[in-house]
Amino acid sequence: MNDSIYELVALVMFFFACASLYFVFILQPRNEALYEIMDCMGSDRSHEAYESCRKAGPSSPRSRASP
Predict the structure, then answer these.
(1) What would the mean pLDDT of 40-63 be, rounded to a whole number?
(2) In Å, what is the CA distance from 35 to each residue of 40, 50, 51?
(3) Angle CA(12)–CA(25)–CA(58) in degrees, nearest 5?
(4) pTM for the structure as a whole
(5) Given 3-state DSSP classes, what are the helix, strand and coil percentages for the chain, each rounded to the nearest 5?
(6) How does DSSP assign 29-66, residue by residue?
(7) In sequence order, what are the residues at sequence separation of 6 or more whose Cβ sits closer than 8 angstroms to the Cβ of residue 33?
(8) Helix 28-41 with 47-56: angle, nearest 10 deg
(9) What is the model's pLDDT at position 59?
(10) Are 50 and 37 in contact (CB under 8 A)?
Protein backbone atom coordinates (compact mmCIF):
# COMPACT_ATOMS: atom_id res chain seq x y z
CA MET A 1 0.00 0.00 0.00
CA ASN A 2 2.78 2.45 0.89
CA ASP A 3 4.67 1.78 -2.32
CA SER A 4 1.62 2.43 -4.46
CA ILE A 5 1.09 5.83 -2.81
CA TYR A 6 4.71 6.80 -3.51
CA GLU A 7 4.36 5.62 -7.09
CA LEU A 8 1.19 7.67 -7.52
CA VAL A 9 2.84 10.79 -6.08
CA ALA A 10 5.86 10.27 -8.32
CA LEU A 11 3.62 9.84 -11.36
CA VAL A 12 1.68 13.02 -10.58
CA MET A 13 4.92 14.97 -10.08
CA PHE A 14 6.27 13.61 -13.37
CA PHE A 15 3.06 14.65 -15.16
CA PHE A 16 3.25 18.20 -13.79
CA ALA A 17 6.93 18.45 -14.69
CA CYS A 18 6.20 17.37 -18.27
CA ALA A 19 3.23 19.73 -18.51
CA SER A 20 5.34 22.63 -17.21
CA LEU A 21 8.13 21.93 -19.70
CA TYR A 22 5.57 21.74 -22.54
CA PHE A 23 4.13 25.09 -21.53
CA VAL A 24 7.50 26.83 -21.17
CA PHE A 25 9.18 25.49 -24.31
CA ILE A 26 6.25 24.98 -26.71
CA LEU A 27 3.16 26.99 -25.82
CA GLN A 28 4.66 30.18 -24.43
CA PRO A 29 6.94 30.96 -27.44
CA ARG A 30 4.07 30.11 -29.81
CA ASN A 31 1.70 32.46 -28.00
CA GLU A 32 4.28 35.27 -27.98
CA ALA A 33 4.77 34.91 -31.74
CA LEU A 34 1.00 34.90 -32.34
CA TYR A 35 0.50 38.01 -30.19
CA GLU A 36 3.24 39.83 -32.14
CA ILE A 37 1.54 38.88 -35.40
CA MET A 38 -1.84 40.06 -34.10
CA ASP A 39 -0.31 43.39 -32.99
CA CYS A 40 1.29 43.81 -36.41
CA MET A 41 -1.98 43.09 -38.20
CA GLY A 42 -3.91 45.78 -36.37
CA SER A 43 -7.57 45.70 -37.45
CA ASP A 44 -6.84 43.98 -40.78
CA ARG A 45 -7.86 40.33 -40.29
CA SER A 46 -7.17 39.11 -43.82
CA HIS A 47 -5.00 36.13 -44.67
CA GLU A 48 -2.68 38.42 -46.67
CA ALA A 49 -2.08 40.62 -43.61
CA TYR A 50 -1.32 37.54 -41.52
CA GLU A 51 1.16 36.20 -44.07
CA SER A 52 2.82 39.62 -44.41
CA CYS A 53 3.29 39.95 -40.65
CA ARG A 54 4.39 36.34 -40.25
CA LYS A 55 7.06 36.71 -42.92
CA ALA A 56 8.17 40.13 -41.61
CA GLY A 57 9.09 38.62 -38.25
CA PRO A 58 9.45 40.41 -34.93
CA SER A 59 12.21 42.79 -36.03
CA SER A 60 10.44 44.57 -38.89
CA PRO A 61 6.72 45.04 -38.26
CA ARG A 62 4.43 46.04 -41.09
CA SER A 63 2.78 49.44 -40.95
CA ARG A 64 -0.14 49.10 -38.58
CA ALA A 65 -3.67 50.03 -39.47
CA SER A 66 -5.51 52.12 -36.94
CA PRO A 67 -8.31 50.25 -35.14
Answers:
(1) 81
(2) 9, 11, 14
(3) 155
(4) 0.67
(5) 75, 0, 25
(6) HHHHHHHHHHHHHTT---HHHHHHHHHHTTTSPPPPPP
(7) 58
(8) 120
(9) 57
(10) yes
